[in-house]
Automatic annotation (TrEMBL):
Belongs to the Ntdp family. The keyword Transcription does not apply. This is Nucleoside triphosphate/diphosphate phosphatase. Its cofactor is Mg(2+). The active site is at R23. Pfam families: DUF402. It comes from Priestia filamentosa. It comes from the Bacteria.
Length: 179
């Protein structure tokens, strides 16, 4: 697929290991797009769940995807600071006009003071058994969970000071007014 240009919208599709769609974000504006890195921004975008239920995001967010890391990071800009929601996932691919990845349930929620909580460990174990995750995938995911925690502690990548603010400013330059 041709790399989407900066300022262009793209759909984000999250799948489960068994190939079923998990969640779709209708529109995220590409702020940086290379073969290995995608940074996007969205605000009040429509999200469709696997059961067809739809909802709209409440705050601006900057999304970080990398083709060589088994996680992605969403920095949500709220009045009291930046909250991060991190998904342990497959690296992203671009296919059929969308950014796609497999969500592997394990998540980390990071608070503005950079403390964090690991979420959904029970859900991960349940899906690991039901969907028969190969041992190599289990090891890759657990390694990347540790790697992601190191990034948080070291303020690396999307956790670096001013990273979200810088990309949000860029997002505002591309954002089209809503009618």
């Amino acid at each position: 697929m041709i790399q989407p240009a900066e300022g262009e919208p793209i759909e984000i599709q999250s799948y489960k290991h068994d190939g079923h769609i998990h969640r779709i974000w209708d529109e995220t504006m590409i702020l940086k797009g290379t073969q290995t890195l995608m940074i996007g921004g969205n605000d009040r975008t429509v999200v469709t769940e696997s059961d067809g239920r739809k909802w709209v995001t409440r705050e601006p967010a900057i999304c970080y995807f990398h083709s060589q890391h088994w996680f992605n990071v969403i920095g949500m800009i709220r009045e009291d600071g930046i909250y991060y929601y991190c998904n342990i996932s497959s690296p992203f691919i671009l296919e059929e006009g969308a950014l796609k990845y497999i969500d592997y349930d394990l998540d980390i929620k990071v608070f503005p003071d950079m403390t964090y909580t690991i979420l959904d460990e029970d859900e991960y174990e349940d899906h690991r058994k039901k969907m028969n995750y190969p041992l190599v995938i289990d090891r890759i995911l657990k390694y990347n969970l540790e790697n992601l925690q190191n990034w948080i502690r070291q303020r690396k990548g999307p956790f670096a000071p001013d990273f979200i603010d810088m990309w949000y400013e860029r997002y505002l330059t591309y954002r089209r007014p809503r009618i």
